[in-house]
Amino acid sequence: ADAEVMQQARARQAQLTKPAGSLGLLEDISVRLAGVFGTPQPHPRGVAVIVAAGDHGVTAEGVSAYPPEVTPAMVANFLAETPWGSGGAAVNAIARTVGARVYVADAGVNADLPAHPRLVAASIRRGTRNLRVEAALTPEETEAAVLAGAALARQAIHDGADLLVPGEMGIGNTTPASAISARMLGLDVAAVTGRGTGVDDVTLARKREVISDALKRQGSAAADPLGVLADLGGLEIAFMLGVMLEAAAQRRAIVLDGFVEGSAALIGVALAPALGDYLFAAGECAEIGHAAQLAHLGLTPMFRLGLRLGEGTGGVLAAPLLLSAAATLREMQTFAEASVPEGN
Amino acid sequence: ADAEVMQQARARQAQLTKPAGSLGLLEDISVRLAGVFGTPQPHPRGVAVIVAAGDHGVTAEGVSAYPPEVTPAMVANFLAETPWGSGGAAVNAIARTVGARVYVADAGVNADLPAHPRLVAASIRRGTRNLRVEAALTPEETEAAVLAGAALARQAIHDGADLLVPGEMGIGNTTPASAISARMLGLDVAAVTGRGTGVDDVTLARKREVISDALKRQGSAAADPLGVLADLGGLEIAFMLGVMLEAAAQRRAIVLDGFVEGSAALIGVALAPALGDYLFAAGECAEIGHAAQLAHLGLTPMFRLGLRLGEGTGGVLAAPLLLSAAATLREMQTFAEASVPEGN
């Protein structure tokens, strides 16, 4: 981000017709957006949510409340024709409301998905390996998923996206997200492992054991972030990392939804610390460990809705707040322009 | 609100393609919106913010960081032609971003405002009397301001508003808002009196003393809410009360911004408890006492941006979240419709 532009933006915020600081966190966000877009009066417009789907070998261990067949069924739901338009999932309904465009990618679903004009076929393999017993992905598979995500982000930006929301769907994917978070943050498994879609106590205990076993394998070290990603896996997590890296490289803002997105961001900032300048946190999600991710990323969440759905829903909900923050910096008059007396 | 419809909406939320409860507070909001609009698949569309401006005799006591001349100057700013459209204040910039319509009313500014095609001239008197020493308004003036607010809400609803955001501008108006809150909630002055636009410690102490004096006068009792409103005043507060009463009577949703709006809502639910069914809290604002207002109203704020600007800004920012909540209930497919397996 551009420090000089941010300084100009900060100075401009202080001259706008409102009590200093009265827009709270929106003022900080507006200044960060100025840095991202390289102008003290940023004008982001298009919003894109990229929903990457992938399956997880670790579901064989019984770590989720839902069967893995839900992943392909939800992909079909993202694409379904409904009376309201394309897509019958939460992310579709919310995206239609706020004017965001939805991209759906198969990053590695364990099923033969029928071809669909709106489905980006980018499957690297039919789900990951079981991370409890072996590396979930090879380095080559991991890189391919990252590149596929970057390619779709490039397309979305070409289509007009200024705000990119990485989203995900993958039954079992809070397990790799927790494993990645434990390793990258150096935290205990229990501190970053929650109920995901809503598992019971017995399943939660098993999930923690599975993750502990995965971390005890002769595996990866935090100093090798792509190695951690391959070891603990998640094709859609790797795909989202690619979305983030491309978005940052093209100076677009990235809105983080929940815990799984956060795990991709942890890999991202370890690879490229400057990525952090492009990240904005939507809300604090209900999944344990999300707060630790955000603290590490230095991000303050905007809302507290207790979301724990994924799909990028929180990021899409946050988009109007980000666009509004930019609008205050861009469109408000200064005290001088409006001839409003200043305070003491 | 319609209890049977809310029951249907709650049942429908449980069948939608997502883990139960994973949309958090949005699910409760969607069910309440179903009750407001009388259908389990509510479809609110238009958003209107009604910014009422008024002045306050109590500014003679030096309770604000800004001179009273700011009130008419900000009204001019709400109406100013800018390169971005009509209005150069924060509420204008945010409303343009989220597609809300802005109505501006003179409810009692202490100035001769030039006529403007977009200014609703509804001034009852040129500011209130000084509430420290006498009743701020007569009962007749109070009623006239309430009726004027109701009339403008009627217009906004006629123009298509389903979500109404009462907003305000009035230098000194956190003083009557604090006085009203102290009386209606039975709380100490210190618990509901903050820095408003940002007064220093000396001014804050004086502001509290002024409010204490006002409450010690032979004045109003909480059992007579319109009496409290007249006694402690605020023409724009009375105007916003009228907006709320009319919106509720026409079964529209009301989005509450900050502390001054909250004081009008306290009068409102004391007059007509059913009004509470139509109220939705945007965020928790930084002004002390707002949390106590929301607790009394039984409302959970959606975001935590630390706003303390007023003008209805927070309510407008919250509008996309409310519209999105309704959209999930309306547009998402059920597990059965989407052939998605349910969890255990």
UniProtKB/TrEMBL annotation, chains A, B:
The keyword Metal-binding does not apply. CDD domains: DMB-PRT_CobT (cd02439). Transmembrane segments: none annotated. Keywords: Cobalamin biosynthesis, Glycosyltransferase, Transferase. Pathway: Nucleoside biosynthesis; alpha-ribazole biosynthesis; alpha-ribazole from 5,6-dimethylbenzimidazole: step 1/2. It is an enzyme of class 2 (transferase). It comes from the Bacteria. Its EC number is 2.4.2.21. It catalyses: 5,6-dimethylbenzimidazole + nicotinate beta-D-ribonucleotide = alpha-ribazole 5'-phosphate + nicotinate + H(+). Pfam families: DBI_PRT. The active site is at E311. InterPro entries: Nict_dMeBzImd_PRibTrfase (IPR003200), Nict_dMeBzImd_PRibTrfase_bact (IPR017846), Nict_dMeBzImd_PRibTrfase_N (IPR023195), Nict_dMeBzImd_PRibTrfase_sf (IPR036087). GO terms for molecular function: nicotinate-nucleotide-dimethylbenzimidazole phosphoribosyltransferase activity. The keyword Transferase applies. GO terms for biological process: cobalamin biosynthetic process. Belongs to the CobT family. Catalyzes the synthesis of alpha-ribazole-5'-phosphate from nicotinate mononucleotide (NAMN) and 5,6-dimethylbenzimidazole (DMB). HAMAP family: CobT. NCBIfam families: cobT_DBIPRT (TIGR03160), PRK00105.1 (NF000996). This is Nicotinate-nucleotide--dimethylbenzimidazole phosphoribosyltransferase.
